Amino acid sequence: MAQTEDIAGKAPGEGQSARRGGWTAVAGATFTVVTSEMLPVGLLTPIGDALHVSEGTAGLTLTITGLVGAVSAPLLTPLLGRLDRRVLLCSMMALLVLGNLLAAWAPNFGVMVVARVLVGIGMGVVWAVAAGLAVRLVSGTAIGPATSLIFSGIAVASVLGVPAGTYIGELADWRTAFAVIAALAVVVLIALAALLPPLPAEQDIRLGGVLKLIGNPQVATGLAMVAFLVTGHFAAYTYVRPALEEISGVSPTLIGTLLLVYGVAGVLGNFAAGAGAGRAPRGTLLVIALVLATTVGLLPLVGGSVLTAGVLLAVWGISYGGVSVSTQTWLLAAAPQAREAASSLFVGVFNGAIALGALIGGLTADGPGIEAVMWLGGGLALAALLVAALGRAPESGRLG
């Protein structure tokens, strides 16, 4: 904590600027790694065509990254536990640059798989480490806002990264989209190196200690909610482009616009849910799960026009936009003395759920069809609703 005190001890203007710059750079890192993970969602059709695979197989680009992130977060965070966090974040961002450039070049699906493995490693570690840094960069009443900003990088990437990639893909091609996110990762790498102070490891994290947290009933409930919500969302959302094309008759030129509507709504949902989770984490997640289940389930039934599909996507975005900030707030409040350990578990389950959702969504899309994918996603969100209602919750989500 000495570094936090050093920053706080500067002249008022200088100290405030340094703190803001540091946590903004970390928010940029979380935005970039999660955008890299989500990027294929809006590009499945052109990726599949270029690499000569089906849409279901192309969806494995998300599954692979999620699985690697799920393993790398709880395993590599303890193994790299003694490294300075600034060095660790910069190293993982460099790996992300390499992975995205390789994806942009990929001549076949095998090379794409290797690229997505590299992205998964970088994403898993950056996300796990970044989530607990706000309390080291600021103190007192500033902890809450700084933490929300860092979380917002994850949430905003989840909802805006996909439409951004889709737009780039429409304006140029899908390879350009990966090249652009690689360039963004370079910018963020430079910002982290320039704006973060040295951040030596705060705790000696051991794998056994990470796994022991699962025995905490509040942590276990939070992880179960993450599993159901995120699996359900990505079972459906990974295939939102073919769903809009087949169910709603949306033309390819309008896909990016509708996903942008979803993204803007998701940003609003992120900040609304962040405020709600700080006061009442259980109530916030009950509302999120109910709205998400209803919206996804209704798409095949009433989403037969561009207008209704757009309305449903906006409500979907509002609900899912609050998932990451609400669930991570829940987990950090449930284990305040083991922030990085709880975050690594969160990232592991979150990304394992992304991988599982993309996988079962792909199997369902290639089997029963796109409508069944939407109903599957809605059903899993209902399961999360039951977990939120019946499980153990922290009294509040306040972090500072």
Automatic annotation (TrEMBL):
Subcellular location field: Cell membrane
Where in this chain does the record put each Major facilitator superfamily (MFS) profile domain? 21-396
> What Gene Ontology cellular component terms go with this record?
plasma membrane
| Ranges where the record places region Disordered | 1-21
Q: Which Gene3D superfamilies match?
A: MFS general substrate transporter like domains
Q: Single GO molecular-function term?
A: transmembrane transporter activity
Bilayer topology: Multi-pass membrane protein
Task: Tell me the CDD domains matching this sequence.
Answer: MFS_NepI_like
Q: What is its main location?
A: membrane
A matching Pfam family? MFS_1
Name the keywords, alphabetized.
Cell membrane, Membrane, Transmembrane, Transmembrane helix
TM segments?
58-80, 87-107, 113-137, 149-168, 174-199, 219-240, 252-273, 285-307, 313-333, 345-366, 372-391
The record's annotation in InterPro entries points to:
MFS, MFS_dom, MFS_Efflux_Transporters, MFS_trans_sf
Q: Which PROSITE patterns match?
A: MFS
| Name of the featured protein | Putative MFS family arabinose efflux permease
Which species is this UniProt entry from? Streptomyces capillispiralis
The beginning of the lineage is: Bacteria, Bacillati, Actinomycetota, Actinomycetes, Kitasatosporales
